[in-house]
Input
Amino acid sequence: MRFFNTYSRKLEEFEPLDPAARSIKIYTCGPTVYSRAHIGNFRAYIFEDLLQRHLELRGYKVHRVMNITDVDDKTIRGAREARVPLAKFTRQFKQAFFEDAKTLRIKRADEFPCATDQRYVDRMIAMIGALISKRLAYQADDKSVYFRINKFPNYGKLAHFDLTQLQSTGRVKHDEYDKEHIGDFALWKAWDEEDGDVKWDSPWAPGRPGWHIECSAMATALLGDQIDIHCGGVDNIFPHHEAEIAQSEGVTGEKFVRYWLHCAHLLVDGQKMAKSLGNFYTVPDVLAKSYSGRELRYALLRVHYRVPLNFTWKGMNEARESLGRIDEWLARLSKIARKEKVQRPAPTATQRPIEKPGFEEALDDDLNISAALGFLFETIRETNRAMDENKLDAASASALLDWWQRINTVLDLEAHAEIVVPTEVTQLAKERENARREKNWKRSDELRERISALRWEVRDTKDGSQLTPRSG
Ligand code: AMP
Ligand code: ZN
Output
């Protein structure tokens, strides 16, 4: 198996840290919960899902951690604007993230650490202390603590930048005047008025951690000093992942990550899909156009992770068509497999799944999903032809179904009854949640009645309200 390692910019043969145990440690940068994640973010999570599932198919045991960034500049700003406490503000987006990930059939990571967890804040503080004692960090006049990039010779190796050449442009932000070097990044941000009640005590000043140290602390706390694979979107390479290396290796003295894997962006009209550009869709936006989670999963999965993918509604329709072909093929195979009378086998059709380069071999090659799907559709075409000519026997059909079961542990694309909640019902449920928050029980009951009239039932759980179709 080989992967393209961003660190070396080369395809490298994959060798786990602990080959004997066949277990692999993966860290994936998770969502910043200041708004609902968009489908560009989910392209990254689906690529990571594909990576995990393929490693598992190949017999590895994967231990994956995905962090939740629930304190940073954006979450603090959002909570302030909404006039609610930070934890309350981020809770709704954490919940939405898990909901959307489930809709897209993304396998859950083993752990989802949150940056605000005191356990990890303590660890961030301890790591910053260790960096200061090694002179890799310093406290500036503004009381914040910065990483001293000039003291870390490997700084810039991941991004392939020579950062020591960075010059001030004269348009630096106010706080950058306190730094020794323009490239020095904040490890600990001293409290200021804009932070409201978001602060933790520290040996330097009350304040909060920088985004980069959050990931270094959570990754090493849960996976140890060395990790097999670290993933994210290409926009994470610099400064985020570069900073993670400097901080983690600065503290431990060990190589932090063996393989850095980054996915290309999801684009809209040739531009990165991003909150800041306003050109984004969320998972509910796509569902509201009557596409299913399965169709969106396929649309985001089908292109090689290092190739930029343009999101279009035409692409969604193509996804629907491709899945239709898979569904139809499976239905035909099942019908034949159930037949008792064995017919003459069609050797070419039955031999396809073990021919090379097959589905799994394509994924071994830096997760070449386009080639893997190409192989699947070629197999479908050939077996359909054999079935048209009545040349596929029950045993061959069963073998193909078994093969599908195996590759579907990676794809997870089989149709199962998906419940699509109509937008009107979702809207009413949202209004009802607001009414309950305001303790307006009369309105909440009225809204329940209206939801019920549309043949849906709303139940209140500790994770918020849940909708189920009303039976009878
Ligand atoms: P954020 O919530 O901004 O920290 O991003 C979460 C993840 O989504 C990161 O791994 C980003 O690199 C990734 N990401 C953000 N925008 C896109 C995009 N348009 N296409 C693919 N991945 C993205
Ligand atoms: Zn991160």
